[in-house]
Amino acid sequence: MILASWRVLAWIVRRADVVLEVVDARDPMSTRSRRLERMVNSLDKKLIIVINKSDLVPRSVVEKWKRILTDQGYNVVYMAARDHKGTRVLRKTIRMVAETSPVIVAVTGFPKTGKSTIINALKGRHSASTSPIPGSPGYTTHAQLYRIGENLYMIDTPGVIPVEGGWLESVIRGKPTEQLKDPVRPAVELLKRALKYNPSSVKDAYGIDEKDPYKILELIALKRGWRYKSDGEPLIEEAARVVIRDYHEGKLLFYVPPEEYITTRRKPR
Questions:
Q1: pLDDT tens per residue across all 269 residues of the chain
Q2: Is the Cβ–Cβ distance between 251 and 206 less than 8 Å?
Q3: In sequence order, what are the residues at sequence separation of 6 or more whose Cβ sits closer than 8 angstroms to the Cβ of residue 117?
Q4: What is the CA radius of gyration of the chain?
Q5: Do the Cβ atoms of 159 and 4 come closer than 8 Å?
Q6: With the C-alpha atoms ordered 54, 57, 60, 63, is the resulting torsion angle positive or negative?
Q7: What is the pTM of this model?
Q8: Cβ(155)–Cβ(106) under 8 Å?
Q9: In angstroms, rounded to a whole number, what is the distance separating the alpha carbons of residues 3 and 163?
Q10: Residue 104: its H or E element
Q11: For site-directed labelling of 51, which of 60, 89, 146, 253 has its Cα 20 to 30 A away?
């Protein structure tokens, strides 16, 4: 996984006319980058928030998120990029908000929000690189400009946004799961959230009817035969990595309801 520096992201944004910010439909607000949004605004570029993985939440939920963000003044599209659902609407919205022709698009987002899937959906099967982009800093030397439609181009460059959104998002999205030194703490928090927002999620995912997150990790490890050789205790670190991967892949299924965000916003400060 390559995290782009803010200097590189600024370079990308400057060269684009429209910037797509990919967020996760299960928790859009925690997967937004306010710093990126401020950068796009300060450089006078157009922003579209793309709510991806909409197939993992009810349609009524993603519609509410779209309405919330639209009411805040953002251009918003939701899609399920891995099934190529919503790609046509996204293309139409890009052309609608763009003030120039041809249009150059940049796709940005935290890790695991589906940035690469959206890039591939926009490229389609017949897209081809038109040229490398000169003056690329650092690892973006290999940045390519792809033609993805008539007078429509996309910057394809390695790298994802440095993660904001609180410690949990920083941990589970900031590094590949196998590189986490302590996967248990974030896995426990994910399980707590799963049980809060979807009480049947753990039973649906693992066939385990248990409410204590640590006990859940133990039972996952035991079901898969994962034990420490020294004492036979359950290897809960491996179980924790499974939980984090299963959340990213949509097997451990839950989402933050828009009503929670609305209620929080209405509370007096």
A1: 556 778 888 989 999 999 999 999 999 999 999 999 999 999 999 999 999 999 999 999 999 999 999 999 999 999 998 888 999 999 999 999 998 889 999 999 888 899 889 998 998 865 555 544 444 444 444 678 889 989 999 998 766 677 776 788 888 988 889 888 999 999 999 999 999 999 999 999 999 999 999 999 999 999 999 998 888 889 999 999 999 999 999 999 999 999 998 877 755 44
A2: no
A3: 52, 81, 82
A4: 20
A5: yes
A6: negative
A7: 0.89
A8: yes
A9: 9
A10: strand 103-109
A11: 146
d(CA 254, CA 196): 9
> Domains of the chain, with CATH numbers?
6-156 (3.40.50.300), 176-266 (1.10.1580)
- Which residue bears the tokens 């509370």? 267
Q: Which is it for the CA torsion 185, 247, 74, 15, positive or negative?
A: positive
Contact (Cβ atoms closer than 8 angstroms) between residue 50 and residue 118: yes
Query: Is residue 102 a contact partner of residue 151, using CB atoms and an 8 Å limit?
Result: yes
Q: In 132-235, which ranges are continuous DSSP H helix?
A: 167-174, 184-197, 201-206, 213-223
